[in-house]
Amino acid sequence: MQEDKYVGMDVHSATVVAEVQNETGKVLMQTILEMKASTILEFIRGLGGTVRVAFEEGTHSKWLYDVTRSHVMEVIVCDPRENKSQGNKTDKIDCHELANRLRGRLLKPVYQGERAQRAIKDLARSYRNLVEDCTRAMNRIKGIFRSRAIACGGRSVYQPEERKQWISKLKGERCAVRRLEQLYRQLDFLVSECQKAREVLVSEARKHCAYKLLATIPGIGAIRAALILAYVLTPYRFRTKRQFWAYIGLAVVTRDSAEYGFVQGRLVRIKKKSTTRGLNQNHNRILKDVFKGAAESASRKKFKSWVQAATASGVSPEHAQLNLARKIAAITLKVWKQGVPYDAKLSKQGT
Predict the structure, then answer these.
(1) What rounded mean pLDDT belongs to the chain?
(2) Which helix (H) or strand (E) holds 44?
(3) Closest of 94, 120, 109, 106 to residue 61, by C-alpha
(4) CATH architecture group of domain 4-103
(5) Is 167 helix (H, G, I), strand (E, B) or coil?
(6) Measuring CA to CA, which residue among 33, 25, 81, 84 is closest to residue 58?
(7) Sequence spans of domains, the chain
(8) Which of 122, 206, 217, 235 is most buried by its number of CB atoms within 10 A?
(9) How crowded is residue 85: how many other Cβ atoms within 10 Å of its Cβ?
(10) Phi and psi angles of residue 8, each rounded to the nearest 5 degrees, phi first
(11) What totals of helices (H) and strands (E) does the chain contain, helices first?
C-alpha cells in the first residue's frame, strides 16, 4: 500500500526549503533544494507513494505550480495572509506549518487557472500598473502646486496646451519648474504606454468567447469586460452569486453574539439587531473597482429608473449604488455561465 506524503515548501528566489510528513505527522525529511525544475522534480520522484504539495502564493508560485502539477496527486497554492502564525519564524518552521496544514486539510487554495489564460492576466496587470503609475505622476504634479498653496482642482493642470500657464505660477522657482517639466514628460510617456496597453488587452480579450457576452451588460464596456475575464478567469469557480460577491468585496458580513438567553426558566432566542459590516479583507480590489464603476455608469443610463425607485423608497444613494453593483455582478455571473447575451429580464434578478 502506497503511503501518502505531505510536502510543505517555503519558496525563495534561489532555494526551496521542503519538509515531508507522513499520514501520522511524522517528519520524514527536511531539505533545502536549488530553485531549478530538474532538482525539484528529482526530489519529488524520489519520495514515492502519493505526494501532495503545498506552498504559498508569490512571485514563483505559478512557475512552481506548472512544474509540479503533473507529477503529484495534488498541488495547493495558498494565500499567505491565511497562514499567519504567532511566535518564531524561520524557513524550516514555515515549511513545517505548511506540511501540517496540508495534512490536516486546513489550507485554502488560490485558483491558478490554466496556462492558456495567463496571457490575458499578464496584459491586465501591465495595464493596471500603468494606470497606477499615471495616477502617481498626476498626484505628484498636483503636489507641487498644493505645497505652495496654489489651487489646482480639475484636470486642466495636466493638459499640454495649458502647461505654460501653470508653470508660470511657480514664479521663477527654477528647481521646481525643472521637476514639474520632468513629471510632465513622464506623464506623457505613461499615458501613451497606457493607451497601447489598453489596446493590446482588449485585442487579447476579444479572442475569448465570453468577451462579447460580458460587453452586452450595462456598465461593462470593453476594458471592464477584459479585466473581468483576466481576474475571474472562469465563472464556475463560484457556485452562487454570494460567493462571487465575497470574492470581489461586495458581500456583507453579519456579526452576532449572545443569541440565546433564559426568560422565566425557558431558553429563548433574544431579538436584537445583528451588526453588519462590509467585507474589506481578502478580496480582489480591482474587480470591486470594476463593478462599482459599472454601477456608476449604468445608474446614469440603463438603470437610472431603478436607482431612482430605490432612493424614492428610502434607500440612501450610496446603498443604491452598492445594490446596483451587486446586481450587475450577479447578472455577469449568470450571463457568463449560461452563455447568453444580456437581456432586460435579467435586471429583475434579486440582489
Answers:
(1) 89
(2) helix 37-45
(3) 109
(4) 2-Layer Sandwich (3.30)
(5) helix
(6) 81
(7) 4-103, 117-205, 221-348
(8) 217
(9) 10
(10) -100, 130
(11) 12, 9
CB atoms within 10 A of CB 258: 7
**Using an 8 Å Cβ cutoff, are 228 and 235 in contact?**
no
In the predicted model, what is the mean pLDDT of residues 159-173? 92
**Residue 304 Cα to chain centre, angstroms:** 29
87 Ramachandran zone, left/alpha/beta (phi>0; psi -120 to 50): left
Percent of the chain residues topping a pLDDT of 90:
75
Q: How confident is the model at residue 283 (pLDDT cuts 50, 70, 90)?
A: low
Is pTM beyond 0.70? Reply is: yes
Element (H, E) at 155: none
The most confident of 102-116, 135-149, 331-345, by mean pLDDT: 135-149
Q: Give residue 201's identity as a one-letter amino acid code.
A: L
Comparison of pLDDT for 57 and 344, the residue scoring more: 57
The full DSSP string for 316-333 is: -HHHHHHHHHHHHHHHHH
What confidence tier does 23 reach under pLDDT thresholds 50, 70, 90? very high
